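re: that chain from earlier
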Amino acid sequence: MTPSDISKLIRKRRSIFPKTYIDKPIEKEIIEEILENANWAPTHKMTEPWRFKVLTAGALERLRDWQVDWYLTNVSEEKFSEQKLKKLQTKPLQAAAVIAICMKRDPTGALPEWEEIAAVSCAVQNMWLTATSYGIGAYWSSSKFIKDIGGFLNLSEGERCLGFFYMGYHKLPDLPGKRGAIEDKVEWMTE
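^ sequence. v structure.
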């Protein structure tokens, strides 16, 4: 792979939403490769704070049911949205797999939390680039219920969920990117 190939892959990565996924499973070996590449993210003091829970098949139905129940229990009548409820009922089942993105803090607390979150974010970028290279769409989603999902995911002491990584094959064309000019975001300091 050339530097040019890497640049093309990075610039090709997009958020591809579950409503555009097709009904095609992702092979277990590909998911394992996606996770192995996540494991090679940068990590300060080698804490490797990323943790993942892979949901497929019946677990996606259980996620849907949990989300719907949480929404019906925790959202007030005035904030209730039939459209949001419908989205919660369908989104998990549109994906071939959903990976819960979790973080386990260094138990010594030697690092600031933001560094651990940054390491997990780097792991997710590795996942996203690997998925993109296979033609798999992906989307990192977080919702209000993330703070309450620990029991559903069987998270251990010191772990927390940072969101869900939805994945599925899709038939979308390469989508154009939208970024402002890098020159507007960089200041060269030479003296």
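The domain at 15-184 is CATH 3.40.109.10 (NADH Oxidase).
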